[in-house]
Specification:
The chain is an all-alpha fold and 64 residues long. It contains two helices and no strands. The protein has one domain.
């Protein structure tokens, strides 16, 4: 099996997902607002858990 094939599939899926989310985000009604709020929620969650993870890693390498 070609090692680049799974990577190509992942890249193609990301491109297709981006196009589908763009269609939804440009839709009517509350769709753009819901996409924005969902994005902010995911970014905030990733930021909080990223900081917590960095703190946990930092506590492994520091002495009390």
């Amino acid at each position: 099996m070609d090692p680049a094939t799974p990577l190509n599939v992942i890249v193609e899926n990301i491109i297709e997902m981006n196009e589908l989310f763009t269609e939804v985000a440009m839709g009517d009604g509350l769709a753009p607002l819901l996409v924005l709020v969902g994005t902010l929620f995911v970014v905030f969650s990733l930021g909080v858990f990223g900081v917590l993870t960095l703190g946990a890693l930092g506590s492994l390498f520091t002495s009390n």
